[in-house]
Amino acid sequence: MNATIPLGRIAGVRVGLHWSVAGIVALVAVGLAYVQLPTAFPGHSPFSYALAGVAAAALLLGSLLTHELAHAVVARRNAVDVDGITLWLLGGVAHLRGEARTPGADLRIAGIGPMTSGALALAFGLLGWLVHLAGAHVLIVAVLGYMALLNIVLAVFNVLPAAPLDGGRVLRAVLWWWRGDRYRAALWSARAGLGLGGLLVLGGVVQLARQSAEGLWSTLLGLFLLAMAGAETRQARIAAALASTLVGDVMSHPVETASGHSTVEKLLSGSAAPLRHQQVPIVDHAGSVQGVVSLRRLHAVPADQRSTTTLREVAAPMERVPTARTDEPLSGMLARLSSITDGHILVLSGSDVLGIIAPSDINRVAAERGLPTALPGVTPSPKATEPPPNWWYPGQQGPR
């Protein structure tokens, strides 16, 4: 799930909102301000109700963000990098740049989310009780109590054993520990998500048939789960098929590199023929990789600045570039694909570049195994050992 509204960075992690968050935030703000609070606590000004509704919506957004930041912190403590966080309808998604190495780590990363929401529910409930004893305004107490209830709902809903919910991740970790097969565990977890989504849609349709407006909410939520669980099912099948293939078997090599001190104009003028992966690692004087520059980034530099702009200035830094080792399974690369590098992964030995993997390389392997396209919209590449025409390597003379 991709963010449609970027919010910036928190502790180095990119944070964004999916458009569905706007719906739940608006529902909470409007529902409280114009329906629930005036009915339960009459006699206050419209401004007071509106302010309480907006405050509740902001606290809900903060609760969702805290839930996902907890995932990110625990993931980092378990040696899994986090690329970003996207908040959605009833929670969020932490985009991990790798996989947990053990079932225990997978369990810890997944379980911290519902635990955090439960802790927030207790905190809001306790705070509401304290401000009530202190004689605070009744609407303040009401908002805090409502937030305690919402966080309980978030905790309970997210603990359901169905992907992509946190409970689905817990189920995956348990099945992984029990059966010793991470990929089959992920497949069963995703199938459980399909089942839950189908039940929600069916229940929503029945409610709508009975002229209950709540059916629309259940149907919408079920459709979201079906879409996300369907994507996870497909990815789990592909990951299982790619588990026996190593990165070194698929990567393209050797890889053309360029000096970080070289200019954009120099590289573009020397790349008259299309590069195989449209990506060029940049290196220092010792040959150590410093980042990756794409043709897209090069062409984004204004023409009158290309002669003075160095490749290092426009390259994606290494902390934003997904990397791999030659002995890693190809299935682990699916979680590392990065929009920063257009889905390309550098294969390294220390700071030396050994090869590169493009989305088309992964699709080629999937196609060879008769599987659906692993990454839609990308044409499978020829075998890595068969360089296409107009490709040249370091030390060779480029095309004229």
From TrEMBL:
Cofactors (names): Zn(2+)
Pfam families assigned to the protein according to its UniProt record, in alphabetical order: CBS, Peptidase_M50
Keywords, alphabetical: CBS domain, Cell membrane, Hydrolase, Membrane, Metal-binding, Metalloprotease, Protease, Repeat, Transmembrane, Transmembrane helix, Zinc
Example of a GO biological process term: proteolysis
CBS domain mapped to chain residues: 251-308
Cofactor note: Binds 1 zinc ion per subunit.
Any one GO molecular-function label of the UniProt entry: peptidase activity
Membrane protein topology class: Multi-pass membrane protein
Similarity comment: family membership: Belongs to the peptidase M50B family.
Protein's name in the database: Zinc metalloprotease
